[in-house]
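User: Please run a holo structure prediction.
Assistant: Happy to. Please share the sequence and the ligand.
User: Here you go; the ligand is PRP.
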Amino acid sequence: MLMASSASAKGHLMGNLHIITHPLIQAKLTRMRDESTPSAEFRTLLKEITLLMGFEVTRDLPTMLATVQTPLRAAQFPVLKDDSFTLVPILRAGLGMVDGFLELMPFAHVGHIGLVRDERTHLPQEYYFKMPKGFERSNIFVLDPMLATGGSAVDAITSLKRRGCEAIRMVNLVAAPQGIQAVQEAHPEVDIYVAAVDEGLNEDAYIVPGLGDAGDRIFNTV
Ligand code: PRP
Ligand code: URA
């Protein structure tokens, strides 16, 4: 299992918060924020950003040497020490981040947690939980583009921990400071990777300036 990272992803490190400031990621995110960006392009951009973020989220994966026979001779080269990974998208919007990660790690398994926020209280309600065999012992990447109040992320991580998971990383596209604080307080050992930290939340608990409702924009349900 991976331990919580002590090294920063490229960008700034604040405690266990990694802000990935790569210019390509930032430029793509700006396109996603634009309300005139159509659903199909929004999905493509999310997949591309996830793949780019994936490089940094996995930067510190431990390797070990294995013997490989090249056409010339046998020699030792690095392989992943532990290739047991479970991607856990939070439904619905987290689904938009699965394919980008799977391009990087086609051997990863995928589990799903269904959570929806109550429109009035903004509290998440779990409606689905399905994990692959052995997920408890794997390295888990929880995926959700939006970290707003943090309620969904905190509940998803709590659900996973209750079932024995220990090595958990959280990957979000856009976060509000309130969401980051909520996850850090509830789960201080979990590393959080984000592409942007926005100003805050509006009265409907939407991230501002944000990018709107990620699920609606991915699935064209506005
Ligand atoms: C959105 C988003 C997160 C959650 C973030 O999902 O994808 O899961 O809200 O908000 P929080 O940090 O305040 O919990 P939503 O509940 O709208 O469901 P959906 O993806 O099915 O639209
Ligand atoms: N969920 C979203 O999709 N967007 C937000 O800004 C907040 C929660």
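The first strand starts at residue 11 and ends at 14.
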